[in-house]
Write a structure and sequence with these properties.
Order of helices and strands: HEEEEEEHEHEEEEHH
Number of helices: 5
Number of strands: 11
Shape: globular
Helix content: 25-40%
Strand content: 25-35%
């Protein structure tokens, strides 16, 4: 019961993050720091793989607060995410929570419980960012740190390191780094699709532009990270 309470209730209600160190649980408001790395596909990163999970996207949710003896609720709220323009109306299960007695507090809670974006993860081999790799002197690779991955279409992806996998007993297995999306951005998604379309229209010009963009992000990124 204790681990279920910790993982499924306390973590979400209080908004903290944690990691295990043997039998010790380290709890933080947030693990890691912002703007700690830049990885440019084809420059200081390659073999970037990704997975996308759209199955749990929900764009509408209703909530009920504390219930009186007469059966009426002291608080009710309903929230429809702006992402419904992209994904359509996908309704989440109604939440009933006795803690809430006013509508505004319940509404804010509903917003925090709605996953209105896909879960996207990127993986990269650890050898890509160590042993004197390009930009290794400025990239801080630690779980929880946030930064940018720039893909081959020139799109900046705001990511966070969510895990590292090591294979100390198997030298044939490459250690990997896993990034997760921080949040899905509707406008960024539209920009990414438009850029992909433009690239396919004239691949020759796009490749040259990509090379220029990569040089720019590398040259400017150092000053951005340390300013």
């Amino acid at each position: 019961f204790a681990d279920s309470l910790f993982m499924n209730t306390l973590k979400d209600d209080f908004g903290f993050e944690f990691y295990f160190d043997n039998y010790t649980i380290h709890i933080y408001k947030k693990i890691g720091q912002e703007d700690q790395f830049v990885f440019v596909d084809g420059y200081n990163a390659s073999k970037i793989a990704w997975t996308e999970d759209y199955s749990n996207i929900r764009t509408k949710i209703k909530g009920l607060g504390k219930q009186d003896d007469d059966g009426k609720y002291k608080a009710t709220a309903e929230y429809v995410s702006p992402a419904s323009k992209l994904w359509g109306i996908k309704e989440a299960p109604t939440i009933q929570d006795e803690r809430f007695t006013d509508n505004d507090s319940l509404l804010n809670y509903l917003k925090s419980q709605l996953q209105d974006y896909p879960i996207i993860q990127y993986t990269m081999e650890r050898a890509e960012f160590e042993h004197g790799a390009k930009l290794s002197e400025i990239n801080s690779v630690k779980v929880g740190n946030s930064g940018l991955i720039k893909d081959r279409l020139g799109v900046d992806i705001d990511t966070r390191i969510v895990g590292m996998t090591y294979y100390p007993q198997d030298p044939k297995q490459n250690d990997t780094l896993t990034f997760g999306n921080k949040i899905f951005d509707y406008m960024k998604n539209m920009a990414m699709q438009k850029k992909a379309h433009d690239t396919n229209q004239n691949i020759g010009k796009s490749v040259q532009k990509l090379n220029d963009d990569m040089s720019s992000i590398v040259n400017n990124g150092v000053w951005y990270l340390w300013s």
